[in-house]
Design goal:
about 230 residues, alpha/beta, Metallo-beta-lactamase, Chain A, 6-stranded mixed sheet
Length: about 230
């Protein structure tokens, strides 16, 4: 499976492009701040046509470019509990962040809600761009945080352990850490439940592609991530 990952211009948010192969339809995950030009280049280089944008949650650093990326008919998929965040994600952003965006891009930060939004729910199955994906609702970082799983691996993945599944974890699980819960809509108790009931049951053979930072595996996180220690599924 063709998998292209690159960081956004701010906060190191990982943007992913997934496709069965070059010249096919693709899915874009979490188009954050300042990714539009890079995405154009990636799509042109690999002759890809976006068929959907998947959002792991509604924070501005993960959704800022969703509307220009979606364009006309391309749908944005987000959990129903975070749907409200697409109305105005800049409204809850700090003045410092808005100022940073203005300094970075030379103009006042603006937002236009995507015209085609599809709400997803826990354990829903999606077939997009030839990929069969499962939605796992894992609240805590936000109310509607989700992870997207599929039974395929990125092309060229080499790991010391045997892997057979990929999970795009958003800001639920990072290599050695988890998403913060002190922002509006965050909930520490909900995060603990998500880690126990959603993350821990994932097989050790799962490759984890997080919203920030490097890829990891569930085997590695189960044994080394301090936030998973002491939890039992």
């Amino acid at each position: 499976m063709l998998t292209i990952a690159f960081p956004a211009a701010a906060f190191g948010t990982n943007c992913y492009v997934l496709a069965p192969d070059e010249g096919e339809e693709c899915v874009i995950v979490d188009p954050g701040i300042g990714v539009v030009e890079t995405l154009r280049e990636v799509l042109a280089q690999h002759r890809l046509k976006p068929t959907a944008v998947l959002l792991t949650h509604g924070h501005v650093d993960h959704v800022y470019s969703v509307t220009p990326v979606c364009g006309g008919d391309t749908a944005a998929y987000i959990h129903s509990d975070d749907r409200y965040r697409l109305v105005d994600p800049l409204g809850s952003a700090s003045a410092g962040l808005v100022g940073m965006l203005e300094q970075e891009f030379g103009s006042k930060a603006t937002w236009t809600e995507p015209s085609n939004v599809i709400e997803v729910t826990d354990r829903e199955s999606l077939t997009l761009a030839g990929l069969d994906l499962e939605v796992l609702h894992a609240p805590g970082h936000t109310e509607g945080s989700v992870m997207f799983g599929f039974d395929r691996l990125p092309e060229g993945v080499r790991a010391p352990e045997e892997l057979d599944r990929t999970m795009i974890s958003g800001d639920v699980l990072f290599a050695g850490s988890i998403g913060r819960t002190d922002l509006p809509g965050g909930d520490g108790a909900a995060m603990q439940r998500s880690l126990r009931d959603v993350v821990l049951p994932l097989a050790d053979s799962t490759l984890v592609l997080p919203g920030h930072g490097p890829a990891t595996t569930m085997r590695r996180e189960r044994s080394t991530n301090p936030y998973l220690q002491g939890l039992t599924a």
